[in-house]
Each structure stands twice: as C-alpha cells, then as structure tokens.
Design brief:
Blueprint lengths: L27 E6 L1 H15 L8 E10 L2 E4 L5 H8 L4 E7 L2 E11 L5 E8 L10 H12 L6 E7 L9 E6 L13 H15 L1 H4 L4 E5 L6 H12 L4 E7 L5 H7 L5 E5 L2 H5 L8 H12 L7 E6 L7 H4 L6 E4 L8 H8 L3 H4 L4 H10 L3 H17 L5 H16 L14
Parallel strand pairs: 7-10, 9-12, 9-13, 10-11, 11-12
Antiparallel strand pairs: 1-6, 2-3, 2-4, 4-5, 5-6, 7-8
Helix pairs in contact: 1-3, 4-6, 11-14, 13-15
Length: 419
C-alpha cells in the first residue's frame, strides 16, 4: 500500500494536543489498515509507553486522547475490543524512532456503504526526514513483541477487494483439545506427527520448519491427526487455517511469514492448487511452489492433506518441498475394538460385533469414520428395536456399505433419453 503526502490536513487533524502545540503537519504519511493491523500497532505503542517492553530504537513519549473534557492520558486496555473502542478517533501518540520524532493519529470511520476504515496519520517535523516504511516497521515490531496472534489458532478470510494483507480478516477460533496418542493410526505415523509437533514447539532452538503431506482416502484419521497437531501447536505458536481466500491463497503464506513459528493447515490441497496440466489451477500452483522453495527461504510449517497424492502435482510433492509424505493405509482391524468402545458403552451394541461382523468389515476395508457413523446409526436402531440382532447388523452393514461405495440397485436400466 503506497504512502501519500497530503499538502494540507483540515479540521480535527490539525488540533493542538499539548501546551507545546504539537499538531499534524503537512508532512504526514497516511496509511490505511485493516482492523487487525490497526490494533497491532496501537498495542505495540501502548506496551512501549507503559514500559512493559523495551525496544532500543523506539521510545514513546506520550499517548493522549482528545475528549469532550480535554486531554486524557492513555491507560491500559482489556482485550482487543476494549482497545479498539478506547483508541479510535482523536487518539494521538508521540514517539521517537532512530532520532526522528513522529506524531501519530489513529482514525476510524464508516463509508457510505457502511464499511469501516482504519487509518493512521504519521506526521513529522519539517526539518526531519522520516522513513516511508515507518508504519511497516512498527507493524514488524508488533508482530515480534506484542502481537495478539503470536499464539493460538486463526482463520483467514479474503474480501476479494484488493490482493493485499490489508484485505485479509483474521478471526480467532478455539480448537478442540486433542492428543496424537488418542488417534487410531499406526504407531509409525504417530511418531512422525510427534516429531512434527516437537519441532514446532522447539522452533526457537531448532530453527527448522517441517512440511508434511498426508495422503489417504477419507475416514482414515487425517482430520483427527490435524486436530491433534492444531491442539498442540497452537499452545506455543500461531496456527493458520485459510477459509475463504477467493483465489488469493498466496496471502496465507504472506501472513504466515510475519510470525515465528507459524503453521499453515491446508485441507484437500489438490482441490486448491491442482495439477500443472489442469490449466485452471496453474497460477495458484506456481505461487504455491514458489512459496515452498523460492529464492528466499520461508520458515513456516505446513500440513496439507489429499485423498490421493497422485492428484498433487509432482513438482509440488517432490522431496525438498515436502519433508514427508505420509500414506494412511487401510484402517487396521486391531483398532476395531478401541474405536467401538470409544464411541459407545452400550453393551447391547458392543456385543453385536462378533468375528463374523469383524471379518465382513475387514473384507470391505471400512474406515474409522465409517465405524463412527455405524455406531451412531446403531444407537438409534437399537433404541427403536430392542430385538435388533447380529443378523440385522450384518444385513444393514452390507446395504449401508453399498450406499457409500457401490450401487444398491441390482439391475440398472437406462432412463430418460437412453434406449
């Protein structure tokens, strides 16, 4: 976003804020931000002002607000909402960075469409030469020292207006508590995932990012593994989940580069980036490849999933771009008892599963997700029919499985215009 230098600022932007008559001058940088950046910069300056953090190059002289009763000193805030409500229009900060004095005004307003705009006016004396990047420098300090988003799990949304980070909305989500050891997958996979989490949680010491591609058909535990990764990693760093990026997926990676450590989670990566020959996804794929191993080393972590690794372009999945590709094979019979007992303590349902049922399930190569859904249906069927038998379960299993994976119609006939 380009800095501008208005020749004159009218109205409240020129109001005196102290006995020294310091005011915004014609030498002013005007920057527009989204709510996220706006709050991050205010939070940084307030923490420096209150002495909670020390940055050698940066000193905050004062923070004041022009109210109806005159000048108020800025005091601590409680949370992001309190911050935004307290420090909007007519809030001024005087700070010094590398011996240049700046006077900053924070301003919010709604346009005719009801869209909120967040602007920061950074003014400086005529006899001093500022850096045009000063706003970005403040933001970089905020990410390093005081960012609200240094830890936790967030979802990103892109409004489609302008391909810049200022158009990306950031929302916290509260991930469910989950542990790797509770997921029904092979021990080798668990060890690989535990190593990933360990590397993330000890990034300050190891300084090595990892990128995994999880491959396997639905229902084999990929989603459960990702939940456990999010649960563990969000305690020490930021976990980023792109939700609606409207074709600007590269902004997800730009956002991740602001934090260390940062983990990006991408579900069904093949649907987003596709293969090189697909055409429609070529531009997104090229951006994705550049982010994975461009000229500048990017130190974000990545977990991506696909139902079939062959759907992911070979150039994206080669060693060096992903550190590991983990194949989730067929759901092992040894997990049947555990997952059934995890889903229900109803002994009537548990006793329905004999060796014959197990062999039928094994021959069908049912997934863990399928078994979870099966138990969900059995709870209802047993409640409706207390006499529900093993034969009933066997018949239902065959019919239900066909519903997901095969045709239930024994003889198909052409309909409509066919002969």
């Amino acid at each position: 976003m380009k800095d501008t230098y208005p020749s004159k600022l009218e109205g409240k932007n020129k109001r005196d804020i102290s006995n020294n008559s310091i005011k915004l001058s014609s030498h002013t940088l005007v920057r527009s931000f989204n709510k996220f950046y706006y709050n991050e910069i205010i939070k940084l300056l307030l923490n420096v002002y209150e002495g909670k953090i020390s940055i050698p190059r940066l000193k905050v002289i004062r923070m004041v607000r022009l109210g109806l009763s005159g000048i108020d000193n800025i005091r601590s805030f409680e949370g992001i909402n309190g911050l935004l409500n307290s420090y909007s229009d007519d809030t001024f900060v005087e700070f010094v960075c590398d011996d240049v004095t700046y006077l900053t005004k924070f301003d919010t307003d709604k346009d005719s469409m009801g869209v909120m705009h967040y602007r920061i006016f950074i003014s400086f004396p005529e006899n001093q030469t500022p850096r045009e990047s000063i706003a970005n420098e403040l933001l970089a300090y905020a990410f390093q020292y005081t960012s609200t988003f240094k830890k936790g799990c967030v979802e990103l949304y892109y409004d489609g207006k302008r391909e810049s980070l200022s158009s990306v909305s950031v929302d916290f989500i509260d991930p469910a508590d989950s542990k790797v050891e509770d997921v029904f997958v092979e021990n080798d996979i668990k060890r690989d995932i535990e190593r990933f989490i360990y590397t993330f949680n000890n990034f300050n010491e190891l300084d090595v990012p990892l990128r995994y591609l999880l491959s396997g058909k639905p229902g084999l535990g990929k989603t459960a593994i990702i939940r456990s990764i999010i649960s563990e990693c969000s305690k020490t760093g930021i976990v980023i989940i792109p939700k609606q990026m409207n074709g600007a997926d590269w902004l997800t990676f730009e956002f991740a580069k602001l934090f260390k450590p940062a983990l990006i989670c991408i579900d069904d990566v093949d649907l987003i980036y596709g293969k090189r020959e697909d055409g429609f996804g070529k531009q997104n794929l090229n951006s994705f490849l550049n982010m994975l191993d461009g000229i500048i080393q990017n130190k974000f972590f990545l977990i991506a999933t696909t139902n079939d690794k062959q759907l992911v372009d070979l150039a994206a999945s080669r060693p060096g771009r992903f550190d590991e590709i983990i194949d989730f094979g067929d759901f092992d019979r040894k997990f049947y008892d555990d997952i059934i007992n995890q889903q229900t303590d109803n002994t009537v349902i548990i006793n329905l599963f004999d060796e014959g049922i197990y062999k039928s399930m094994e021959s069908k190569k049912v997934t863990g997700a399928y078994i979870v859904n099966l138990i969900k249906q059995l709870k209802i069927m047993v409640k409706m029919n207390p006499g529900f038998s093993k034969d009933d379960l066997h018949n239902y299993l065959n019919r239900n499985f066909k519903g997901f994976y095969k045709s239930q119609v024994k003889e198909s006939k052409n309909l409509g215009f066919g002969n």
